[in-house]
Each structure stands twice: as C-alpha cells, then as structure tokens.
C-alpha cells in the first residue's frame, strides 16, 4: 500500500531554502559561525587596514590596546590584522583544495558508476588504495612531492580529498541509476551524458555539497598542521597554523598568541562541520545517519 | 458473548510542527470473545494507528491517545508503561506486516519465542524452551525442533510470518492484533497463512483484531467488519451483511472498486469499473493479423558468482525458453508470483536487462533482434513501473519530465510544452499542473504522469510492470479505467505484468501464467480463468481471496514454499512440451505428482 | 567464511600493490636529491655521484622498482639513506612505540565514545544527545597540534604535573594519549549513535516492545548486538589510520614512533625508509580491517555464510 508518510515530501522551493533553518539548530549555528568567519577575514581587512607584515621591533609583544586590539607579536606585527589576513589563507587552502578534490573525485566517481567494467574497477581500487593511507601521511608525502608554498599545498590537499568525493559520487550515482526514473529516461532515449546533467547531477548535488562543506573544515585543519610543520605556506605570510608555530617559542610570555589562532581554527572548523551536517539534514533527511 | 476489547471515543493525535493533529477521530468498537473483527480502509484511514493505540506502542512524546480502551474490563489508558509491559505479549499480542524485518536478525527464532514466554510466565528455561518448540509445531513449521536454533535469515517470508504468529500466540493472549499480516506475502503463501490463522482461531479460541486493506482477505476471515476512512468509522456490520448490503456510500464505492476473481465469467471483453462510460470490444483484431510483438525462445539467466575467484557457482534461470506474441490493441497479462521471471521479461523488452537467447521482433522492424534492444524500438515500446514515487525524478518539474523525451528528439521547447499540455489532458490532468514538482502529486496522479511520459513518444506497446499494485483500491480502479480508455483511443497494446489475478481478469484479452521462469499456461482470459488446466494455474486461482463471504471456502492446510529459480551451474532445463487445449489455449505438460 | 577472509585479503593485496607502486614513483618525482642532501653542502659533484651509485639511485626508476620488489620478496627492505642501518629494525622499534600509544588512545576513545553514542541515540534530540553530539563535533573540529600545545602549556609548563614529551614512565603516555583519543572520539560517537538510532527504529525492536520486553533488555539483547557492526568496522579502520597517522602528536610530544620517523624520512628524502613505512602502514591498515571483519563475523552469523 502506498503510504504518503513513508515518502519525504518537501515544500515549495522557497520553503526548502528558508524553512529548513528551523529544522536543524546545529546547521543554523554552523551557518552563523561560517558567516562570522567570512566577514572577519574578508570584510575585516577592509575596515582594519593595518599592514599585517609591518614590523616594528619596539612594539613587540604589546598587550591588548586600542592601537592593537589583539596586541602584537615578537616582531611588533599587529595580531588582529595577521589573524584576518591569515584566515584568508586558511580559507583559500580549505576551499581551493576541496574544489580540486571535488572536480577530480566526482568526475571519477560518476564515470566509474556509469561506465562499470574496467573503468569502475580501476577507479574504485585506486580510491581504496589511497584510502589505505591516513590523510596526514598522504598530505605529508604530496607536500614533499609538490614542494612548499600555497599552490603545492592546495594541490597536495586536493589529491588527498579526491577519494572521498569519488566514493560519495560513486555511491550516490549508483543510487540514482537504481531508481526507475533513471530507467525511464534511458528507455525514453536519453543518452548517458544527457542523463548525467539532467538526472544525476541535480540528485547527487546536495550529498556532495554536504561532504564538500565538511571537507573544507577538515582540509583547513590538515593544511594548518602542515603549515605548522613548515611543509606548506612559508613565513612571513600570515596563516593560522604558522602563527601557532611562531607563537610556540614565546608561549610562556604571550600565551594569547598561541591561543587566538587556535581558537580561530577551531571556530572555523566547527562552523563548516555543523554547516555540512545542516545541509544534509535540510535537504536530505534520509542521509542523516550515514 | 462478552467483549474482550471495548473501545470508546478513541482519539489519537500526533504532534506535527507544534500542533496536535488528530488522525483518529473518536471511534467506538468492540471485539467479542472468539470473534475476528476486521478493520478495513485505504492508506491514511487510521487503521494501523488504531492498532498501535490499543497496544499503546505509539511514541509518547509525539502522540496522544484519548478515550477509553478496555481489555477484558481493564482500562488500558490508565495503565503505567510498566503495567503495559506486563500486558503486551501476554494479554494482547501483535503480528506485524513485514515478516522480513519484524524478527531480530541475530537471535535464533526459538529464542525469540522463548523470550516472550519467560517474560510473562513463571517457568524454567527448559520449560520455556519446550513451550516455544510446541508453538513452532503449532504453526506447522516442518521439523521445528531442528529449526529452533536457526536465525530468521534462514527462513522464507511465509515461514517467518509463522514464527511471528507463534510468538504472538505463545502466552495465549486474550486478543491478537494482526496488522496486514499477509500483505507482504505471495498469494499462495497468503492463502496458507490465512488458513493457518483460521485453524488456530478455532483451536485456541482467539479473538482477533485484523487490520487489512484487502476486501478479499476481509471476506475470507472476518466475522464483523468496520470500515474506516480518514480516521473515522464509516460503517460497522456483520461480514455478510456488509458485502450484501453496504450501508455507507464509501463502503459501496470501495466494494465496487474491488475486482473479484470470477466476476468476469462469461464475458469476452475486458471491462472498465465504470462500465457505463465506455465499452471495450472483445477482440481487437482478427487473430491472423501479424502481431505487434513477437517473442520467441526468450531465455534470460544471471550468473551467481562466489568463492575466491568469483567463479560462477550457480545460475538464476530467470526466464527459460519463453515465447509469446501480442496483437495490436491487445492486452497480454503476464501473471506469476515472486521469482517467476515476469518482470525480467518486461525489463528485457526495453533493454534494461540482457537475454541469453531468443528473438524479439516488433512489427515494422526489418528483422527481429537477437536479444538486443535496437534503437528504433526505443520509441515504440515504453514502460511504466510499480512505484510511482520512484519513477519521477524528484528534482524535475512535471513539465520538464514530459518535454524531456521530445527535446531529446529535437522538438523545440514551445512545441514540446504544447504537446506536454496535450498529454496531461490525455491522462485527465490539468495542464496547469505542469509547473509542479512530483512531490506535490498523489500516488495515483503520479502514475498518470508516468503514463503520459511514456505516451509522449507515441509508443505502440506499453509495458506495465505491476503498475497498479502499489495503489489504493479506488485509485487502482481509476488507473485501470484510464488504461482501458487510452487503449481504445490510441490503439495501444499492453503487456500487463502483475501478481494480482483479479486485476488481470478485469483488463486483459489474453493471459500467460508464469512459474519459475516458464510460461505454464497461456490462452484467452476466458479460457485460462474458466478452464484452467495446469495445476499451478489452479492453485494460483484458488489462492486468491474472494471478496464475497458467501463463497468462503476452506483450503487444505499446506506448507508449500515457492521454489527458487537458482539452479546449479550444470543444470540443464528440461525440454518442455506444450499441449493445445483449445485454439489459442496452450498448457505446459506436467508430471503427475 | 575462509573464502570470505581470503577474498578480502586478495582485494587488499591488490590495493596495497597499487598504493605502493603509486607512492614509489611519486616520491621519485619529489624535488631534492637524497645523495646531495646526505653528502652535505661541502660534497663535490664526484662524491655525490659515487654516493648516488652506491645507493643505486643512478639506475632508471623502473629498474629501481624491480630491484626493490625482488628485495622485499626476500625480506630485505633496504638500508636507510640517513643512518645506513637496515630500515626494518628501525621501523619495528618505532612501530612498538606507536602501537602502545595507539592502543591506549583507542581504548580511551572507545571507553568514552561508545557509551556516549548509545546514550545520545537513546535520548535523541534531547539534552544528553545535544550535549554529547556537540562534544563529538568539537572533537572532530579540534586542531590536534594546537590541543597538544595547549595541554603542554597547562599541564607541563604551568602546573608542572606531567612531562611535556619523550618516553620515560607511564606519565609520559597521558598527554599524547589524550590528544590522540580526542581526535577519535567524534567519529566513533557519531558512528555508534547513527547505528543505534537506525536499529532503534527497526521493525524487530517494535516487535520486542509488543512482546512486553523491558527497554533495558531491548537495548542489551536486541539493539546493541545489531548495532555493533558499523562501530567495530570504524574502530578497526581508525586504529589502522591512527597507527600511521599520529605524525602530529608524535612529533610534538617527541614520541619515537613511526609518524615521527616518516616526517624525518620525508625531510631527508630517505627513499628506502619512506617506501618501507608506506608498506608497513598499508599492512597495518589491512590487518586491523581484517580483525574488524572477523569480529563482525563472530557477532553476525549471516556474514559467515557466502
């Protein structure tokens, strides 16, 4: 018997965009946190126009004041400005590497699911192989291969994000292919390429978006760890992980230099993690427990 | 007679987005000792909620049960949760719909029954085990002692439902609530379970609250019936009374919409439910006309691989040497139970599955294809599926879903939209709905849209794979009528794949009965239904519950299982011979048992 | 059951081989010449060339690969470019240190996360769930290296309660164990919660309630066993990953494990060491996954068939 209650019914497009915020408190909190971080790192420097790299040794280790709301570091650089601009780098690392992993991984996953046969075996075995190494080990090796700096770091983290996107898009695509609406489209004469754009992409987009959001958070963390070890972005460019590394030797004197960037990383990461969960809850309640 | 269960003013509400919404509106009913009361209704009628309300199994935070529910004189609504635990499974027990998921998959079946006994009876472990074993015997599970320690995984659906019944009966409850206990089962298995329930009712003097959507099952098992609609009681009557002279108009519509096996006896043509609106001619074309679809020697097998090197260890003989043809404007029904291969044939005809051997030819094609769907057929053979919820892309507006096949073929957007509007009118929906998403439609409307989408490419043959099986009775009747009308308007042929004998009898010209991948009997509908030859056809027809309590009959109590089409890899299918009974009526030769 | 295990093993070996081949060729694209790094700033081109030949690095990458495969088949993983010692012995010692740390961390994580996941599932969408789930999210969002520094700052520098690194006695285990466990708590809690929630809504749990079974008994006899598999799998997977992946923790706490070994090998372009470590990591992953599979087969008889 058909039971309307077993099939999730969504409201209009509008209520799907706005309404869901009420349904997932954690998602809403995540969205707010991410928004705060975005405003802080992108709008902040427009308001607080102090040069983050301007050294002034006389002003080193200043406490919080109106001239330097978050004080200064060992070289007298303004901590607030460095936090803002450093956050930009962290977000760029997170977003850039996620996008790279998404494009490559999703393409591989969808092709593997649609094609089957050798393509499927090759892609999925390779993905398994990559997943057999911890992310940080992959990142360390890739970072060593591609050299130091922002670009290589993004490429390294991008490759290390590839398997998860390939897995998710593979599984989701298989799910769509299993539905009779996909069968109907094929019977009605749609080519597989057309089916990808009309049926597959729209239906797997939210799941991938959720994973992508979660991935930004974890890539920011892994990126910061690599920067901390000197395997990524090089000084003097400000970046949260680097700032923690710099603050380490003065932590007895100015613990806030150690604490502040860590908290920024923590908030950013929580924000993206909660937002990712929220996207899943809002758009696809069935995925909630996966 | 005393009342075992007395329900007064039962109102059940659910907390939905902050508001208490009642779904059962103050209903009264009683179950007398030794009586079976059937609660019947379509989806959303509140019948299952009523059952769960009596058991007090609804989530306490989001549901509210008001009124009075008295079991043997004790008010259940006043009982604490701890007291209810002493009552559930002891004085009132429940059998659920889904045998495949209702048993704990990791606990031996015997243990699950023993657990119920030990909860409510002060017996030793050994005594409880003995009692549990008795119960397995009582529900006629063959070699019960051996199967006591097996997990549900090793049982078929029918056998699992027997275990569920044994568990419910274990503590000799005053009342059994059975919620659609046979709905998920094949028809021959359903007949066995119903028979078992009737026997047990006499042996154990059970009182039963039997929830079902199926009027045939009601007629088979109920003493009294209450009909529910939208959470309210529509009518309550003694079973014969209800079928003979339904008082409420809703009951009448419901009964009119139920196809009755045998009701078409003596008629040659399919018949719409609203028979007054139009007539279907008996035979669409003279028999010597070239058929629209001709299938010869179709064989479909799937390999089962296992072991370290994924070697073929067995084969599913899904379809074995099947031949049939369909004329223009004709409906051929493929009927059979699970594993009969009927759906596989449909999927192969549209290219969703590959076949091993055989020839498929659609009229107009230069040559038939060996096992492959050639592109030109794509347009002429279309398909509608069982689940209307899974057959429409949830992210595509209906307009887009209907124009997409035309756009693929290079029709301009404006022309395609015009045609889509026309298609909507064809399936009796308003073209204004084209802007909506699938979730804004009901199941029946969605199935209409699926039909419209299939018709968008002007096919000659429509394959309907259990296309009305998931729908409520009244909606089912409407869709069948629509299909019959469209058949006449557009001169369509149908391959109607179904397990529902009554529906098949209603709308088909010819019928092919399938068992384990083979057609065991094929002929005109009249011949197959009125003069069935093959023992399986007879068994199938006999198993269908008849929605007429006057024709209630006892069947022999069997524990047959439906066999599996999985065979060893060196299995060679026997060569079958078809015997002609009368012109156009053939039956497979069978061995006498 | 044996075929099942063998099949998993066969799949893993293929994956491992792919992984290893990939890494082998990738690390040779790494910028930086190990011979020059080893020779130091003062080495002449001739010295560097001699060194290169003695290390076998003058051969083509393909040749190097075949030689390596042959040697591994004979149980020889090569000598470290940095120390000249056989890498096998060095890795074994480090592995023992990592293993003891990871065992402690995983036990601590499980001890918190599994009960937390069960409680969150049972009390879902209520206060205990919300607070436990929040802890889980916080745990996955914590930068491990930062947490380690803060803990050192508080417990070693300020309170002088615990050593800030190295290996001495059991007190040395406390901080690194806590940091590693903290990174794992989130995932295990969420996985346990998700599978318990799923089982709680299963039809057979409703059947048990309809029999009158007490909620605690339902949880113990019907829910937990059925919900165990995903948690067992994820713990197996994570144990393997953490064993290899505790680079950050090991480096900050100066723990002589395989993670720290890897970071040093990468910095020195010590090819034999990196190769051998990757192999060991892969084998560790496979082993722990297999152990998890076996445990699941013990719990669920259905997995033993077919």
Characterization of the model:
- The complex is a heterotrimer of chains A (290), B (593) and C (306).
- Chain A is mainly alpha-helical and 290 residues long.
- Chain A has one domain (26-49, 74-288): MetI-like fold (Orthogonal Bundle), CATH 1.10.3720.
- Helices cover 70% and strands 0% of the residues of chain A.
- In chain A, helix 3 packs parallel to helix 10 and helix 8 (192-228) runs parallel beside helix 9.
- The longest helix of chain A has 37 residues, at 79-115.
- Chain A is elongated.
- The two termini of chain A are 27 Å apart.
- Chain B has 593 residues and is of the alpha/beta class.
- Chain B folds into two domains: 3-257, P-loop containing nucleotide triphosphate hydrolases (Rossmann fold, 3-Layer(aba) Sandwich); 293-395 and 437-588, Rossmann fold (3-Layer(aba) Sandwich).
- Chain B has 19 helices and 23 strands.
- In chain B, the strands form four sheets. Chain B has an eight-stranded mixed beta sheet, sandwiched between helices. A six-stranded mixed beta sheet of chain B has the order 6-7-8-3-9-10, with helices on both faces. In chain B, strands 15-14-11-12-21 form a five-stranded antiparallel beta sheet, covered by helices on one side.
- The longest helix of chain B is centred in the N-terminal third of the chain and has 18 residues, at 187-204.
- Chain B is globular, with a radius of gyration of 26 Å.
- The two termini of chain B are 46 Å apart.
- Chain C has 306 residues and is mainly α.
- Chain C has two domains: 2-73, no CATH class; 87-303, MetI-like (MetI-like fold, Orthogonal Bundle).
- Chain C has 14 helices and no strands.
- The longest helix of chain C has 36 residues, at 87-122.
- The radius of gyration of chain C is 24 Å and the shape is flat.
